[in-house]
Amino acid sequence: MADTSYTVLRLVFTTENGKKHAMEFNNPKSDITEQQVNDLMQMIISKNIFTTKNGDLTGIADGGVVTRSFHDLVP
Measured in Å, how far apart are the chain's first and last C-alpha atoms? Predict the structure, then answer.
């Protein structure tokens, strides 16, 4: 049995239909700053890079680094 952990950058946007849309990117830089995350999210919105089933991304709802741990129970 092995314990593992991994880190992702989680970005949560609002959409034009009033819903939220989240995306995650594996292995963000360990020294990523709040300003870098905000700038990235603003760029994604302003360049209209992604369209979701709930429409275009229109605003920033949340963003941050998430670390998850996994404890393997099955050999």
Answer: 6
CA 19 to CA 32: how far, in whole Å?
27
Compute the distance between CA of residue 67 and CA of residue 6 in angstroms, rounded to an integer: 6
Q: Give the domain ranges of the chain.
A: 3-71
Which residues of 16-54 form beta strands (DSSP E)?
Answer: 20-26, 51-52
Q: Is the pLDDT of residue 61 over 70?
A: yes
Residue 1: which pLDDT band, with cuts at 50, 70 and 90?
Answer: low
Residue 21 has pLDDT above 80, yes or no: yes
Report how far residue 54's alpha carbon sits from residue 41's, in angstroms, rounded to the nearest whole number: 17
CA distance 16 to 4: 37
